[in-house]
Design the sequence.
């Protein structure tokens, strides 16, 4: 197997980023195929994912990210069990494995098995040497390490099967936003992307907001009206109707703007088409609570300033950088350790 060079890899990912900014007819055909296979992968949602990925693969960030990467000359086979909750969600894990010169043995999610192979094929056309570093598998075999993404339930199986090799095993995480009541309308409108992009199905999707006591709910709902077309998606609408009927039958207090239900709840993980909220008197209590729940939280969005919390601005949760690793576990450092 020919060894990969860092300069080759940087150039290849830069070219892929440019391709994503100007996708051709073949890519549009792949999007159509993905849409037919998974009703959640509408053209709009796939395009959002592609745009975010193109932003991630910008030249300056690639140069900066690769500075800390060592491309191995003794590749290890890394098994990847990928999620499929949003389009191309598994790309970053594959990229990390390839960027370090290792071999990606990929078990695709049945929910996202069209777009990723297409993009990786494009990458191999740019840098043919990568063909020897990508393997698709129904069942992982002969791996030296594993990166597996699943639910809290599947993580127990992953730990049982993969516990004897170096591993990263990801569980359910949720993202939250903290409002102070001083937000501008445009900031709440941007928060709408954090909540509703990909129908709220990503781990970076906001599933709960913290609001001050006596907060005017209309100040939250009115700037979100631009997203009302989401209710026209039949699967999303089914979830909205189902949860609304449950709350009405059980006489549970909730707010409803016609496409998003807002319900008071101490939990972090809200059902689809529902956003949980919790009120607070002292914002310091919220930051303390978030620190205690750090292991369950992927992102925090808001205008908070706290040295112990990494807080994103409104509208940024669905636009991760190359170094924004899932569950705050540095995948590159993990892969470096395989050579020790």
Sequence:
């Amino acid at each position: 197997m020919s060894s990969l060079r860092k300069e080759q890899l940087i150039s290849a990912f830069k070219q892929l980023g440019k391709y994503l900014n100007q996708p051709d007819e073949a890519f549009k055909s792949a999007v159509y195929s993905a849409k037919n296979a998974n009703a959640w992968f509408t053209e709009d949602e796939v395009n959002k994912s592609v745009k975010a990925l193109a932003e991630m693969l910008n030249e300056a960030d690639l140069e900066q990210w690769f500075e800390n990467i060592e491309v191995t000359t003794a590749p290890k086979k890394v098994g990847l069990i990928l999620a499929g909750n949003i389009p191309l969600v598994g790309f970053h894990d594959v990229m990390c494995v390839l960027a370090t010169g290792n071999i990606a043995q990929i078990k695709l999610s049945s929910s996202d098995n069209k777009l990723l192979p297409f993009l990786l094929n494009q990458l191999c056309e740019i840098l043919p040497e990568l063909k020897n570093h990508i393997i698709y598998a129904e069942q992982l075999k002969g791996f030296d390490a594993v990166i597996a993404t699943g639910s809290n339930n599947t993580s127990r199986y992953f730990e049982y099967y993969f516990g004897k090799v170096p591993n990263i095993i990801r569980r359910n995480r949720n993202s939250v936003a903290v409002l102070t009541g001083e937000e501008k309308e445009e900031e709440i409108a941007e928060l709408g992307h954090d909540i509703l992009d990909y129908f709220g199905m990503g781990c970076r999707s906001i599933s709960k907001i913290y609001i001050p006591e006596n907060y005017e709910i209309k100040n939250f709902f009115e700037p979100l009206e631009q997203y009302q077309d989401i209710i026209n998606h039949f699967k999303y609408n089914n979830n909205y109707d189902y949860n609304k009927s449950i709350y009405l039958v059980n006489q549970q207090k909730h707010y409803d703007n016609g496409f998003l239900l807002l319900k008071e709840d101490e939990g972090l993980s809200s059902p689809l088409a529902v956003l949980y909220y919790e009120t607070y008197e002292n914002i310091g209590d919220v930051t303390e609570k978030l620190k205690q729940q750090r292991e369950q939280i992927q992102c925090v969005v808001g205008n908070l300033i706290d040295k112990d919390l990494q807080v994103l601005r409104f509208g940024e949760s669905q636009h991760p950088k190359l170094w924004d690793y899932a569950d705050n576990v540095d995948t590159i450092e993990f892969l470096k350790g395989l050579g020790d």
In short: The chain has a mean pLDDT of 94.
